[in-house]
Amino acid sequence: MNTPNASPFSVTVDIVDERIARLTFSHPTRRNALSAELLHALDSRLVDLAAQRIPVVILGSGVGQDVWSAGHDLGELADDRDPIAYGKPLEQTLRRVRAYPGVVIAMVSGSAWGGAVDLAMSCDLVIADESARFAMTPANIGLPYTTSGLLRFFNNLPIHVLKEMFFSAQPLDAARAERFGVINRLVDSDKLEATALEMARGIASKAPLAIQAVKEQLRILEDLQPMPVQAMEQIAELRRQACESADFSEGLAAFSERRPPKFSGK
């Protein structure tokens, strides 16, 4: 699961019963960062669970931690200037979650950052405790987010809240996240796992093919966003410029050196 010099991580599956699985990821030395290897492991486990026809999956990194996931492992950006592009491990895993032929419930305890927020929002339901925070931080390092990623937020948040998250990179706390519908159930930490299992059991008792059909219809409807070719090309060029900019290099260097970045707009 790990290369010889990589920080240790784990992605484990616990079959609660024949209709419910717990899928838990852990990367303790990196604040549960979503490294490429961890994402590949998540993707692989979801493929296996789909093959076993498990109707409900509870996805999380544990309860009582300060950080649910720090998002994409920024240490990998030295070799990849656009880690969220189509076909990259993060985007592939997000598509796998959204296309999973059953219900995926995100169980969130602690803060979620960057790509980890996208992971939670790609799930069908979100159960969280009061420690949950959701921060979209690409602007801190100069990384432009993808259109597909923005659409996931566009479909789930009021436009001014979306802009606030992406422009300021400030966390959306659990109370506001519940108010705007990001969180389905907000509970005390000691009730988080029980609540997630209760909801999972309720869903698992329903007709799985009917739920699968509704989920796929909703996924198609959410993705039904026609865009002119000219607009796609314009967005692609804006993203290319940002990914190749000196600001992006400065953002990565500042993060590595634990100092405030000095952006120049170039």
Automatic annotation (TrEMBL):
Gene3D superfamilies: 2-enoyl-CoA Hydratase, Chain A, domain 1, Lyase 2-enoyl-coa Hydratase, Chain A, domain 2. One of its GO terms (molecular function) is lyase activity. It is an enzyme of class 4 (lyase). Its EC number is 4.1.1.-. CDD domains: crotonase-like (cd06558). PROSITE patterns: ENOYL_COA_HYDRATASE (PS00166). Keywords: Lyase. It comes from the Bacteria. GO terms for biological process: fatty acid beta-oxidation. It holds the Pfam family ECH_1. PANTHER family: ENOYL-COA HYDRATASE, MITOCHONDRIAL (PTHR11941:SF54), ENOYL-COA HYDRATASE-RELATED (PTHR11941). Belongs to the enoyl-CoA hydratase/isomerase family. This is Methylmalonyl-CoA decarboxylase. It comes from Paraburkholderia sediminicola. The gene is scpB_1.
